[in-house]
Design brief:
4-stranded parallel sheet; 43% helix; globular; binds phosphoric acid mono(formamide)ester; Asp/Orn_carbamoylTrfase; cytoplasm; EC 2.1.3.3
Length: 325
């Protein structure tokens, strides 16, 4: 039997396939209960702190709503002393005295690891430069809702910056759950050897196929096409080179057709530059840079399940908190 009480979610590397499936099942159960209007207060009396060193819409609101739904209290902490006037270690020790759980979003993976090491309470990674584990759970949940096949018969193709935090996480979770994962993108942005080797090792046990190719034909037979922004938070200065490298990998209707699967779903962690409605996309355009990683046509098409995916962030994060607290 799976028991995750007291555990941190720093990266899915630390979780077995059985534990990941347990979290997914719990998320489905909590989603159904919320739909039915059933309230359980599974986190009653718990205090949770959410630390954000990078911006967020979904992750913050998902943690807050999940906590409130289950009767917990939340503190949203930006501009704290942490890392500026106080070490991560001391901050973690203080927060561990006040709170039952800590969410952290920021840059270095070492920060979230240190918070877990010194706080003595469960710590959840809400995105670092290396990983976005709660996103991966929501993504697989969404695939299970819309792709009517067992996990070990699904093919997920990530197109674009295949070495970013989201791609790393998808490769990892696929390799654990037996999902056929293909990373499609330019050679200079291919998955790191470290993550590739880790995934290939997991695949020996799960039977997953894990591949990288620069060739767009890699999308053939996909059940899901996934993309993310070309420039992640913290690497804004890389915009010109990324546009040059990734323009051939923009997800458009031709690429969707190249899957040869009329039922292929389109996924994106969001936020997305699918049009020029944002200040960042507009300003880039004025500099001659078209940063759209997906066309508006695909984003708004029947293939797109991106808002179901966004909703599932809440149900999966709720499952993580309920299971670990
Ligand atoms: N997908 C995701 O993490 O969204 P936010 O950056 O809005 O939290
Ligand atoms: N790769 C993106 C994901 C945002 C949710 C970033 O890190 O900015």
């Amino acid at each position: 039997p799976v028991n995750l009480k007291g555990r941190s979610l720093l990266t899915l590397k630390d979780f077995t396939a059985e534990e990941i499936k347990y979290l997914l099942n719990l998320a489905f159960d909590l989603k159904a209960k919320k739909r039915a209007g059933l309230r359980q207060e599974l986190l009653k009396g718990k205090n949770i702190v959410l630390i954000f060193d990078k911006t967020s819409t979904r992750t913050r609101t998902a943690f807050e709503v999940a906590a409130y739904d289950e009767g917990a209290h939340v503190t949203f902490l930006t501009n704290s002393q942490m890392g500026k006037k106080e070490s991560i270690e001391d901050t973690a020790k203080v927060l561990g005295r006040m709170y039952d759980g800590i969410e952290y979003r920021g840059y270095k993976q070492e920060v979230v690891e240190a918070l877990a090491k010194y706080s003595g309470v469960p710590v959840w990674n809400g995105l670092t430069d290396e990983a976005h584990p709660t996103q991966g759970l929501a993504d697989v949940m969404t695939m299970m809702e819309f792709i009517h096949k067992p996990l070990n018969q699904m093919k997920l193709v990530f197109v674009g910056d295949t070495r970013n935090n989201v791609a790393n996480t998808l490769m990892r979770i696929s390799s654990k759950l037996g999902i056929h994962y293909v990373a499609v993108g330019p050679e200079s942005l291919k998955p790191s050897d470290e993550i590739m080797n880790e995934a290939l090792e997991n695949a020996k046990e799960s039977g997953a196929i894990i591949e990288y190719t620069p060739d767009l034909d890699g999308v053939k037979g996909a059940d899901a096409i996934y993309t993310d922004v070309w420039v992640s938070m913290g690497e804004e200065d890389k915009m010109p080179e990324r546009v040059e490298l990734l323009t051939p990998y923009r997800v458009d209707m031709n690429l969707i057709k190249r899957t040869e699967n009329p039922n292929v779903i389109f996924l994106h962690c969001l936020p997305s530059f699918h049009d020029f409605e944002t200040t960042v996309a507009k300003e880039a355009k004025e500099r001659g840079l078209d940063i759209r990683e997906v066309t508006d046509e695909v984003f708004r098409s029947k293939h797109s399940k991106v808002f179901d995916q966004a909703e599932n962030r809440m149900h999966t994060i709720k499952a993580v908190m309920v299971a670990t607290l």
